[in-house]
């Protein structure tokens, strides 16, 4: 089982929540955290997770989850309601970058994802979730690539491909229909010509017979 599947099962499923996406991160700037604040557990992995409640009305939240070195379990740390998210900073709109910032009402963190593609996927899910579940004040997305802001660009691409294929198939059928139509016309012309030839031959035969 992957780490993200384990987080979904261990952290969110017991609370009747559904995890939509997660990204493994490290801080770009180290915070000075007292040894006792971590429980003396040393190094750890950090995941930023996006989830929604299964119960209506749907509530979306962003949760920081940690896995300490030597442990197979995950620990829920900080959590914010999606309404508290004020700004999402993609750092560089002109290139793939693993760095990003999240600004909440009462917190600000600077992160770097494990890969740029993992960050991109998480941003697409986050942007789509904000558009779907936030009606009033939506967070500001800045310095983000257009493919991230598109959110469902993959779906649009697939739809365009299907539409193009249907159009080509329709065009091919039309062209085939035109060819069949021309063939039918030629067949009818040949049939008429053959009938006229038969009638002429019959008349000539009768004339010579007389």
TrEMBL record:
Listed Pfam families: Sec3-PIP2_bind (PF15277), Synaptobrevin (PF00957)
SUPFAM superfamilies xrefs: SNARE fusion complex (SSF58038)
Places the protein is found: Cytoplasm; Membrane
Limits of the V-SNARE coiled-coil homology domain: 151-210
Listed GO CC annotations: exocyst; plasma membrane
MF GO annotations: phosphatidylinositol-4,5-bisphosphate binding
GO biological process terms, semicolon-separated: exocytosis; Golgi to plasma membrane transport; regulation of SNARE complex assembly
Function: Forms non-fusogenic complexes with SNAP25 and STX1A and may thereby modulate the formation of functional SNARE complexes and exocytosis.
Name the record gives this protein: Syntaxin-binding protein 6
Species classification: Eukaryota, Metazoa, Chordata, Craniata, Vertebrata
């Amino acid at each position: 089982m992957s780490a993200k599947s384990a987080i979904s099962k261990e952290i969110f499923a017991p609370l009747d929540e559904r995890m939509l996406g997660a990204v493994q991160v490290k801080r770009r700037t180290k915070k000075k955290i007292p040894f006792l604040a971590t429980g003396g557990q040393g190094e750890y992995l950090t995941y930023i997770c996006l989830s929604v409640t299964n119960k209506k009305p749907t509530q979306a939240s962003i949760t920081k989850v940690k896995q300490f070195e030597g442990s197979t379990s995950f620990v829920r740390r900080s959590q914010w309601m999606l309404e508290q998210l004020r700004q999402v900073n993609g750092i560089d709109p002109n290139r793939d970058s693993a760095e990003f910032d999240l600004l909440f009402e009462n917190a600000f963190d600077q992160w770097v994802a494990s890969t740029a593609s993992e960050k991109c996927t998480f941003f697409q899910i986050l942007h789509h979730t904000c558009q779907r579940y936030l009606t009033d004040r939506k967070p500001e997305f800045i310095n983000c690539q257009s493919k991230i802001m598109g959110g469902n660009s993959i779906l649009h691409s697939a739809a365009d491909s299907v539409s193009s294929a249907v159009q080509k198939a329709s065009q091919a059928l039309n062209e085939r229909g035109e060819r069949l139509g021309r063939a039918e016309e030629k067949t009818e012309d040949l049939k008429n010509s053959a009938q006229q030839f038969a009638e002429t031959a019959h008349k000539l035969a009768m004339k010579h017979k007389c």
